[in-house]
Structure formats: C-alpha cells, structure tokens
Design goal:
The structure holds 2 protein chains of 2 kinds. Chain A is of the alpha/beta class. Chain A is built from 17 helices and 24 strands. In chain A, the strands form 6 sheets. Chain A has a 6-stranded mixed sheet with strand order 6-9-10-3-11-12, with helices on both faces. Chain A has a 6-stranded mixed sheet with strand order 18-21-22-15-23-24, with helices on both faces. In chain A, strand 11 and strand 12 form a beta hairpin. The N and C termini of chain A lie far apart (62 Å). By secondary structure, chain B is mainly alpha-helical. In chain B, a hairpin with a 2-residue loop joins strand 2 and strand 3. Classes of the chains: A alpha/beta, B mainly alpha. Chains A and B meet through helix 10, helix 11 and strand 20 of A and helix 8 and helix 9 of B.
Chain lengths: 498, 310
C-alpha cells in the first residue's frame, strides 16, 4: 500500500478562449518518482504551474498530505513543501550559491546578515547532494548541471516534500545527467516524492516508478512504468498508432540549386558544398562546431568572405538578410522565441513578416491578399490556432515552429535553411514537420538542415555534412552514413571522405 | 458572439467619465468654445505625441522633441522676418526637424546606442544651438504680409475650426493610416516586439529606426511652427519639458514603453485626458503649482489602473 502524497482531482484551467486543462487527475506517491508525459501543449506545464501557485485553477481540488491545499503563489507553495525546478533556472547569476539558496530569507538579525550561518547551512545542503562546491562561489561560474543542483539544494532547504522537475536533463551532459539521477534516488530514499517531466523516454524507464499521460489538456491514463513499453507510451501521448517516425523520400535530382565556394570568417573556414534540387543536406556537429554560424553567414547575418555563392547558377551575395531573401535563401532560426517570431504579434502578422512587400503597393498593405496568404499557409501547414489573429505566444511549440517555417516559405525561396527544426517540438509535430520537408523537396527546394539529433539526420537527409571546429570534416551519403561515422567526424577523429 | 475587448477602450472610457464629472462640477466646461479651446491647447502636445507614439512602439524614446520644437520655431521666425516666403520658411523648419530626427536615428541605429542617452544628448545640443542661434532672445516674425500668413496658422479658422486643431486631426488620420495600413506600421510593431527576429525576417531594421525618429522630428517641428505662428515670435526656451508631456500622453493611451504595443487612437485619448485635466483645473482657479501636482498624480493613477488590467 503506497501513500498518496499529492492528489489533484478534476483540475480545469481556462484561459480566455482556450481550455488548457479539462478535468485532469494526478497522483504522486510517497517516495516514488511520477513521470508526467505529454506532447508540447498537452498541459503539463500548466498543471505544474497551478500546483506551484503561478496560475490559479478554474475548478478542481488539490489534496496534499491528506489535506485540502490552496496555493496563493510560488512562495506559498514552497513554504507548504512543494518546490518546482523550472526548465529555465531561476538563479541570479551575479550572486553566490548561498545567497541564491537563501534568497528572500537570509538569516539575519536587525537587518544584518549572518553570513556564517548562511554559508554553513548551504555547505550542509551541498554536502547532502554530494556536491563539492564553495557556497561563496558565484553562480555564473557554475555549469548548467551544477546550477540545477543549486536549485535542488534550494528546494531541500525548504524541506520540500514534493519536488517537480521540468525537463531537467535538456541542457545537461551525460555525466551530469547521471549525477542528477543519483540525487533523485537519494531524494526518494529520504522519503521525498518527485514529479519528473521529460521528453526523453529512455529516462522515464530508467528512473520513474509510475507515469501519468496527458493529451490536449485531458487525462489519458496512469500506470506503473514496469507495465508499459516505449511504443505504447508514444501511442498514448499522440493518441494514434505510430508508424515509422522518419519518412525518407527520394526525389533528388542532379541539378545543383545552391553552391557555396570557400566561405570563411572568424567562426567558419573554407566551407565548400552544394545542394541539389530536391535534396536535404544535413549538417551534423557538436555544440560550437559552427553550424548555426555557417547558416547565419550564408544568410547575411554574420559578415564573411565568399569566393563564390550561387543559387540556380546565378551568382548571389547575401550581404544582408534582406538581400539573401531576395536572392532566394530563407532561414528558419533554431531559437524561435528569440530569433524567429515576434511573440506579441498575431499568427498572421508573423507569417507575412518576411513577405509583406509582396502584398503591398507603394508600402500600403493589401489586406485581402495578405489574408489569402495567411490562410493558405495555415491550411497547407495545418497550423492549429483558434484564429489567425491569435497572438503567436499562445500557441504550442510545434505550432510556433510551423509559423516560423511558414514565414520563411512565404518568400518563395529556392534554398531553405532549417536550424534545429524539431527542437522543443513533440513527437506528433515532429512527424508533421518531416512530412512538410518532404513536400518542399518534391516542389524542388534545396534544404540545408542543421540538427543535433543524429538519428533524425540519418532518417531524413540525402547527404550529411559533418562539421568540426568551424570546418567541414566530411560529407557522407545516405547509404554510407552511420551514427558512429558521424560521431567520429564530429569529434575530428575521422579522415575526410568527400 | 464576438466579445468586445473593453480594456482596449478603457482610456476612452476614462476620458468620457472624466469629462462628465468635470462638466457636472463646472458648467462652463461643456461649452462649444471651451471644447475648441481644449482641443487647440492640446494640439501642440498631441502632434508631438503622435510622433512619439511611433518611436515608443519601436521600443525607443525621443527626449529631443522639445529642443527640436524650439529650434524649428526659431528658424521659421527668422526666415519670415528676413522676408522669405512662408512656404520656404515652413519647409525649412520642417527640414530642420526632420534633419534632427534623422541624425538621432542614424546615431541610434548605426551606433547601436540607447535611444534614451542619444536623445538626452541631442536634446542638450540642440537647445544649446537654439540659444546660440537666437542669442537667447525671442525672435519676432515681424509685421510684414508673410508674418500675417504665418500668424493665421496659429490663430486662424477654417470652417469655424481653429487651424491648429485641423492640423492635429490630419496628423492623427495620417498617423493612424500609416500605423495600421502600411508596411512601415507593421515593421514598427514587430521591431518593438522582437528586434532580432524582425531583422532575421529580412526587414531593414536600421531604416525603420531612422524613419521613426525622423517622423518624430518632423512632427516636433510642425508643433514648433504652430507655437511660433500663434505668438508671432519664437522663444528660445519654448518646448522645455514638452517631451515629458508627450511621453505621458502616449503612456496614458496604453502604449507600452517596452515596445511592440500601442495605438495612435490611444495617444489622442491620452493627450485629451491631459488637456481636459489642465482645463478643468484652470476653470476651477487652481493655482498652477497645484496643477502640476494633480497632473502627476493622475498620470500615476492611470498607469497603475492600466497595469492592474494586464
């Protein structure tokens, strides 16, 4: 018989015009790790924000340790023993570890901070996490994994009974992930309970006891992890049978649509490659290999020297983003929130941001032809939104990504550069994006696709170009490429295969 | 079916309620001549605030408008007194204003500097130039035929409406049109919402910045011409502190200082709220010291209410 620590019953949350959660249940058991799964936009974050007091629920009840719980705000939640560790960490970089742990409640007398107590207490907390760090050290000098541990230490300092982790391993290295799992095990041993949110299914099987699945704001099911496999999980998440995840389409021609000859600047060196009409050229490499920098250099965002660059045989210059677009090159940024979308503007206005000139005469916008374009892309890319006038920030990650791609497509490019097109996008939307890419291929576009997920590159690309320290370390054909060969080239261990 | 978003109109509702209250307290408020009076007094601030709206929606600010107003006013008075035709004088003054704005825009866009600092500096520079140019003394436009034409802009009527009001209405109609119907307007909003994304979308963001500061400069000059015309002379210290009134009108109208959000209609309302408040306090014989106090408090309350609704 396991004790239920937290019981959320029939939680409903309505935002103006949208029902984000509809009667959702969640149980968390004592000394257990509960996985919370669902696609982007399924309502996981909203549910956790209600639990941690960021949002107020519209209806439903929460019971914590057998008592009814009302949370008025994040601080209140913490004091009641519920701590959340957000995907984006909430630490103040310029302050020390100890100051961050005790933020807002420094041990003090008559307004004078007792540093000794603070540092000693912090040290004890860090020791509990097997972390050999000086509490006086500034947070900005820590790695992301260490910062996360500081957040956990902060949660422990509140004697939190329930710790929520929202995609904690997204930015961690493998060894940091291992030590996080170790800490989670220790937490469980110390009779704490954990809610674990992640897109990485193998992790769920590794550390979670039970799993709760949400889809489109509704509760789908709860079951022990031991009674389910990965495919069943995905099916429950997306609500349909999952066939082959990647769908490769062979429609490559011999006609070169894009050629880059000797592109160099401070970040990338001697880049030479071409893309055929209807081909996807993948770009693999480790962080810092210069992949995004290459894309931005081609796109005129980063100055560079080029011996020659041509689109369909016509020499192009791409000195500015606008010139690149006019010459037939479009770029979809890896960071859609920072570089891709104007979040405060509507879906429609974002779609036409790059191509507004096409629907205007003497700078006056022809609203009717603009609207036609917006609806064309909304339908063609099946962007799910209540209205094209909806602010784009209210859309799910996958739909935002589609808007970002639609914006670049609307300029009718010949070359489409996709930088991490499936990052932060759920399984179902990923598949839709791959299928869209196949459609673009058929229409004769050349695609340069940057990705950090090697299986994805192997799944959809015709050729894969691997970069290492700003240089091309090899270009592999679809048939010869393997995960291992790509890794060897990415770490600079392989000889050039051209 | 369609839900009307009341918060969109809250500054207008505020203005209407406020006007009703004032008219109940004082029966001289709701008379035709007083309304025209308010509108005429508001016209200067409104015209400056219209330009300021463009700048603030891009996430910038223009502190140099008061100094621009003074220098352009001095230029128009000087040229008229030297016997130039009013058209030449007016075009020259507008060009001076546009030039100052263009300069601000170039420095901000190409120098990648904070608009606050840049326009704080140019505000001081151009106030200084005005004082040097006028030797610190008022410049009379003189009494020639040309001066009379100029004076008409400030004091004349067209179909019974004072000309400054007509100019103000035209400025607002054009401003509204540009912001809502043209590519420039759309880029102004998207630049304020996310500059990097706008730039990566192929928009020449530097050009948009230069354009909004130029617009702000031209409209400040237009306000300067009207003030000079009204008094038939230019004061070297004219327009001191007007930048703050314009910013207040824009913010009262619901435009966010963070950029990306705002409207011309809001700015009209904001300017009118300030105008009605000034007029009401005058009608009630409140001393000008208390007037400042009251104005500040009203602005604070208004933005607090606005904040609550978000």
């Amino acid at each position: 018989m396991t004790d239920v620590v937290l019981h959320m019953d029939g939680i409903t949350k309505e935002f103006p015009g949208v029902k984000a959660l509809d009667g959702v249940h969640l149980n968390v058991y004592k000394s257990k790790v509960m996985a919370l799964l669902g696609e982007n936009g399924a309502g996981k974050s909203t549910l956790m924000k209600i639990l941690s007091g960021v949002y107020q629920k519209t209806s439903g009840e929460i019971y914590f340790k057998g008592e009814k719980l009302e949370v008025t705000g994040p601080k209140d939640a913490m004091q009641k023993g519920i701590a959340i560790i957000h995907q984006e960490l909430n630490l103040i970089e310029g302050l020390s570890i100890a100051e961050n742990i005790f933020m807002g409640r420094f041990p003090s007398k008559y307004g004078k901070v007792n540093w000794k107590i603070m540092h000693n207490e912090s040290k004890k907390l860090l020791d509990r996490l097997n972390l050999d760090l000086d509490p006086k050290r500034k947070v900005q000098s820590l790695s992301i994994g260490q910062k996360q541990m500081v957040e956990i230490a902060k949660a422990l300092s509140f004697e939190a009974e329930l710790i929520i982790m929202d995609e904690p391993t997204d930015a961690l290295t493998d060894s940091e992930t291992e030590s996080l799992f170790k800490v989670i095990e220790d937490l469980v041993k110390a009779e704490k309970s954990v809610v674990y949110i992640s897109h990485r299914l193998p992790e769920i099987f590794k550390i979670c006891d039970d799993v709760t699945i949400l889809r489109d704001g509704s509760f789908v099911g709860e079951m022990p992890v031991s009674e389910i496999n990965e495919n069943q999980l995905i099916e429950m998440m997306v609500g349909r049978k999952l066939e082959e995840q990647y769908s490769y389409l062979d429609c490559k021609t011999e006609e070169v649509v894009f050629r880059v000859d000797a592109l160099s600047n401070a970040l990338v060196k001697d880049i030479i490659f071409d893309i055929k009409k209807g081909e996807i050229l993948g770009v693999a490499g480790l962080m810092g290999a210069g992949r995004t920098e290459l894309a931005k250099s081609i796109y005129g965002n980063i100055p560079c020297d080029i011996k020659d660059m041509s689109v369909s045989g016509v020499k192009v210059y791409g000195k500015t983003e606008k010139q690149a677009i006019d010459e037939g090159i479009a770029y979809v940024s890896e960071d859609r929130k920072k570089d891709g979308l104007v979040l405060g503007l509507s879906v429609g206005n974002n779609i036409t941001l790059s191509s507004l000139g096409q629907y205007s005469t003497a700078t006056v916008i022809n609203k009717k032809s603009e609207k036609n374009c917006i609806h064309y892309y909304k339908d063609a890319m099946s962007i799910k939104t209540p209205s094209v006038n909806q602010k784009v920030k209210l859309l799910s990650g996958g739909n935002q990504q589609k808007v970002s791609i639609a914006k670049s497509l609307s300029v009718k490019p010949k070359i489409l550069i996709l930088d991490e097109p499936t990052r932060g996008v759920d399984v179902g939307a990923k598949k839709e994006i791959y299928e869209l890419m196949n459609t673009f291929k058929k229409e004769g576009l050349g695609i340069l696709m940057i990705s950090s997920e090697i299986p994805e590159l192997l799944g959809v690309c015709d050729r894969i170009m691997v970069m290492h320290e700003g240089k091309i370390s090899g270009i592999l054909n679809r048939v010869e490429a393997t995960q291992e060969k790509i890794m060897r080239l990415a770490i600079g261990a392989g000889e050039s295969i051209q | 079916m369609k839900k009307i978003n009341l918060s969109k109109f809250q500054s207008i509702i505020g203005l209407v309620i406020f006007s009703i209250v004032v008219s109940l307290i004082n029966d001289r408020f709701m008379t035709g001549s007083n309304i025209l009076n308010i509108l005429r007094q508001t016209s200067i601030n409104s015209i400056i605030a219209a330009g300021m709206t463009f700048v603030i929606i891009t996430g910038g600010i223009d502190l140099s408008v008061g100094a621009t107003l003074a220098l352009s006013g001095a230029v128009v008075a000087m040229l008229i007194s030297l016997g130039y035709s009013p058209i030449v004088a007016i075009v020259a003054a507008l060009a001076v204003g546009g030039g100052i704005g263009f300069f601000n825009g170039i420095v901000i866009a190409k120098g990648k500097l904070q608009p606050f600092i840049v326009t704080l500096a140019t505000m001081t520079v151009f106030r200084g130039i005005t004082l040097v140019f006028t030797d610190g003394k008022p410049i009379s436009a003189g009494y020639e035929k040309n001066a009379e034409f100029l004076s008409n802009i400030g004091n004349g009527y067209f179909i019974g409406i004072p000309i400054p009001i007509i100019i103000m209405i035209l400025v607002f109609i054009i401003g509204f049109y540009v912001l809502t119907q043209t590519t420039l307007g759309r880029y102004v909003y998207s630049l304020g919402g996310n500059e990097e994304a706008t730039k990566l979308s192929g928009v020449n963001t530097d050009r948009i910045k230069i354009m909004v500061y130029t617009i702000s400069g031209v409209l400040a000059a237009l306000a300067g011409i009207i003030i000079t015309a009204r008094l038939s002379s230019a004061q070297p210290t004219a327009g001191s502190g007007y930048e703050l009134d314009a910013i207040a009108a824009v913010v009262l109208g619901g435009t966010s200082l963070a950029g990306g959000v705002g409207s011309i209609l809001g700015t009209v309302t904001g300017a009118l709220i300030i105008g009605v408040l000034n007029n009401a306090l005058n009608l009630m014989n409140v001393s000008s010291y208390y007037q400042l106090l009251a104005k500040g408090i009203v602005i604070l309350i208004a933005v607090l209410l606005d904040r609550k609704n978000k």
